[in-house]
TrEMBL record:
Name the record gives this protein: ADP-dependent (S)-NAD(P)H-hydrate dehydratase
InterPro entries: Carbohydrate_kinase_pred_CS, CARKD, Ribokinase-like
Species of the source: Lacticaseibacillus suilingensis
CDD domains, A to Z: YXKO-related
Gene transcribed to yield this protein: nnrD
Subunit: Homotetramer.
E.C. number(s) listed in UniProt: 4.2.1.136
Cofactor: Mg(2+)
Transmembrane segments: none
Protein function: Catalyzes the dehydration of the S-form of NAD(P)HX at the expense of ADP, which is converted to AMP. Together with NAD(P)HX epimerase, which catalyzes the epimerization of the S- and R-forms, the enzyme allows the repair of both epimers of NAD(P)HX, a damaged form of NAD(P)H that is a result of enzymatic or heat-dependent hydration.
Amino acid sequence: MKTIDQALPAQVIRLRPANSHKGTFGRVLIIGGNPQYGGAAIMAASAAVYAGAGLVSVATATVNRSALHARLPEAMMLPYDDPSLPALIQSVDVIVLGPGLGTDATAQQVLTTTLAAVTPEQSVIIDGSAITLIAQQHLTVALPKAVWTPHQMEWQRLSGLAVAQQTPTSNAAAASQLAGTVIVKSHRTEIFTAADSFLNPLGTPAMATGGMGDTLTGILAAFIAQFGHHAGSICAAVYTHSAIAEQLAQDHYVVVPSQLIAALPAYMAQQAKK
């Protein structure tokens, strides 16, 4: 297992070309946020915007419309049960499926609709509730550009490995049974691609708060949309998330996701200039 090098973000994050436009930096769609957990989708979308995605849309419960527009006017919104959702899915580069989606019948329909509409060329980040639904129903997801983002309990549901059994070796074996890349989130996050495995050397207990995983998901989406779907951009996103948190934790007892999100543009500018 390779340790992610501190130089990686500067190698991935590039200065923006002078002739750029919003389409240059990718289209991201966040699908999630039921009436109870709307904040998860909002945090993921906020992280995607602040990490540089060119256009961000959110398919969420209608009740979240006002909160989303008040918190993040840069994002577009569509009810996640709208008949035009499949067309929207097919118009974007990166889909995030699952933050705050829930596991009820509506969530199941959204999951089914999304997986039916996604093409093999698109990147799909499978997060949160979507992981739980897929694990519960033993669904096979054969998308080559899938990125799975389970925390340890979600990984237990998906892999069958109890938390105490989640060693790098056993995690690698389980990850090899899934299409795409697997990010097993813990105090030292592990990343498994088809060809390699990586360890994130950073992380702080100050990150142990609700919404931190949603924030990582949004950063991942933005990095893939801008810098391409490959191990470098995925690992750089994971490292960036933790590096900013460690900086904030120097004088903050807890790192709130909204603080981390607000710090993204400055951190990325610093890396791009190296």
